[in-house]
Write a structure and sequence with these properties.
With 423 residues, the chain is of the alpha/beta class. The protein is 39% helix and 22% strand. A hairpin with a 2-residue loop joins strand 13 and strand 14. The longest helix has 18 residues. The N and C termini lie close together (8 Å).
Length: 423
């Protein structure tokens, strides 16, 4: 990013608001508890998966992930009462402190200015969690008085989570019928908010798109090399353990293995012996590319991941601890590190977008003025306890042994603007 832009952005962060936003202090992970999914739900989902395997043979990990996370009757995101935050199974950056969302807001406003401040415009968030990040972003937009002509569009499959988001973001909301969106609401500043199950249903228009910890939950296919041959890793029922699930290597080429070998197994990937690929991620990238190319805007992907130098990252989290992903399906979050080298490949294949990054979360936040914003909040803090909460949260966000280096920021922009954004 241009140094002059960084300087202006840091000044904006310092002056726009001096009031800390209260966050509940985070307890040690070992003392954190989370409500479980109802046992009957998990049991029914396990039986459904076993029946599917009995009827058609071992299933891809992607099929397993999709059922475990989004099955309407027993999926993790569809039935768990609280999956985010100190009482959930994992903590996300916006829940740690307001600095994260505020810096993203000012950064996105700065980019919006580069485009000439087009109106109307829309904020789109994929997988908005509890709505905390969007709440912080909208607070900053309100301070800068740029909400005229703004609408917010949230892509959220879970109606249960949409109610949580609406209670935080809106002064009023209501369920909707066949309008393309299934819920709508209005913020205290009069900004209209809409909820969708798919990005494809979001209206066309100039968009600033956020995807924070979204791609890591999209289903993956796992491919491993045995000798000179690639195999797909599948999930089967262990015949010696009765009802237990197990990983197995495919005995013959699967449809997704053939697609991988024919279309994606480049020279770089051939040097690897373990690849986790999300074809749903490519579909989302293609949709984002079409939107940015047709309507203008940008997308910012923030997630934990690697640059193609890792193999097996598929795992589960429950009560802030690692959990066997094949045990009690539906009771824990399933995730895999985002392979940013593949995301970059997906972007290149669209021919419509260019990318900036990925860069580490620490580097992005430092560059965007997060430390200056922290100093302002510390000066306004009303107690030592408040100061400790702010500094501890900032360290969690930026220290290399916590979130600072593991999380990456990855920006997508229309190809026709590539030269302008190099300046």
């Amino acid at each position: 990013m241009n140094p002059r832009i960084v300087g202006r952005l840091a000044q904006q962060v310092r002056r726009y608001s001096y009031k800390p936003v209260r966050r509940v202090p985070l307890p040690p992970a070992s003392k954190t508890t989370a409500p479980d999914v109802k046992p009957a739900d998990g049991f029914q989902l396990a039986n459904e998966l076993r029946s599917r395997i009995a009827a058609g043979g071992p299933i891809p990990i992607a099929t397993y992930m999709k059922q475990v996370l989004t099955n309407p009757a027993a999926g993790y995101y569809m039935t768990a009462d609280a999956v985010f935050g100190r009482k959930g199974d994992f903590i996300t950056s916006p829940e740690i402190g307001q600095v994260f969302g505020e810096v993203l807001a000012v950064w996105s406003l700065n980019e919006w200015h580069k485009f000439g401040r087009p109106v109307p415009f829309q904020l789109v968030e994929l997988g908005p969690g509890k709505g905390t990040m969007m709440s912080d972003v909208l607070r900053v937009y309100g301070k800068f008085k740029v909400t005229a002509g703004l609408t917010v569009h949230l892509v959220e499959m879970s109606e249960r989570l949409s109610k949580v988001q609406a209670s935080l973001l809106c002064r009023s909301s209501a369920e909707c019928g066949d309008k393309g969106y299934y819920r709508s609401g209005v913020t205290a500043d009069g900004v209209k908010v809409y909820w969708y199950r798919r990005l494809e249903d979001v209206p066309q228009g100039f968009s600033l798109i956020f995807a924070h910890e979204f791609f890591d939950a999209l289903p993956i296919h796992k491919f491993v090399k045995e000798g000179d041959a690639w195999k797909e890793v599948l999930i089967d029922v262990d015949p010696e353990e009765g009802e237990k699930f197990r990983f197995v290597a495919s005995k013959a080429d699967t449809p997704m293995l053939r697609l991988f070998l024919n279309s994606y197994c480049s020279e770089a990937i051939k040097e690897r012996d373990h690849v986790e690929m999300s074809f749903e991620s490519e579909a989302v990238i293609q949709e984002i590319g079409s939107r940015l190319s047709s309507n203008g805007g940008l997308a910012l992907i923030v997630d934990y991941g690697h640059l193609g130098d890792k193999g097996d990252t598929f795992r589960a989290f429950r009560h802030h601890k690692l959990h066997d992903p094949l045990v009690e399906p539906g009771c824990a979050d399933l995730t895999a590190d985002v392979d940013f080298s593949l995301l970059k490949l997906f972007c290149e294949r669209t021919g419509k977008i260019f990318t900036v990054g990925p860069t580490s979360q620490r580097a992005f936040l430092e560059m965007a003025g997060a430390r200056e914003r922290l100093e302002v909040l510390l000066a306004a803090a009303s107690s030592e306890e408040e100061k400790h909460r702010l500094t501890d949260g900032f360290r969690m966000l930026t220290d290399d042994d916590q979130m600072g280096s593991r999380f990456k920021f990855f920006a997508l922009l229309p190809m026709e603007l590539k030269q302008m954004f190099k300046k």
